[in-house]
Amino acid sequence: MRNEFALERYRYIQQQIHAVNENAHRFLAIYQTLATALVSAALALFVGYRKWEVAPDVARGGVIGLLILATVVAAFTSTLIVVGALAWLDYRNEECDITDEIVAPGFRKRPNPGNLFRWYETYVLLFITASVITMWVLAGIFLLPAMR
C-alpha cells in the first residue's frame, strides 16, 4: 500500500513538474503578445495623435500609460516565472525525498540553485527586463521628446 501511494505521488509530482515547465513558455508567450500590443498602441498614438487632434500632453500621457501597462505586464509575468521556478524546486525536492525513501538514498540528485545560469527561466527574465528597459529608453529618446 505504501509503495502504491508513493508511486501515485511520484506520478503527480512528475505531472506538476511538467506543468510548471510548460507554464513558463505560456507566460512568455502572453508577455510577448501583450507587450507587442501595448507598444504598438503607443506607436500608433505617437504616429496619429496630430491627425486625431489629440493634444500633445494627452498623447504623451497615453504613451507613458501604455508603457506603464507594459511594465506591469512584465512584472506580473516575471513574478509568475519566479514562483514557477520556486514551485519546480519544491517539487523536485519532494521527488528526491520519495526516491530516497523508496529506491535508495541519493538515487536522484537534488536540484542545485547554484545552476541558475543553466535554467532557461533566467534568460526569459533577462529578456523581459531588457525589453522593458529598451522600451522606456527608446520612448524617452525618440517618442516623448517629439511629442511637444
UniProtKB/TrEMBL annotation:
Keywords: Membrane, Transmembrane, Transmembrane helix. The chain crosses the membrane at residues 29-49, 61-89, 123-144. The keyword Membrane applies. This is Transmembrane protein. The lineage of its organism: Bacteria, Bacillati, Actinomycetota, Actinomycetes, Kitasatosporales.
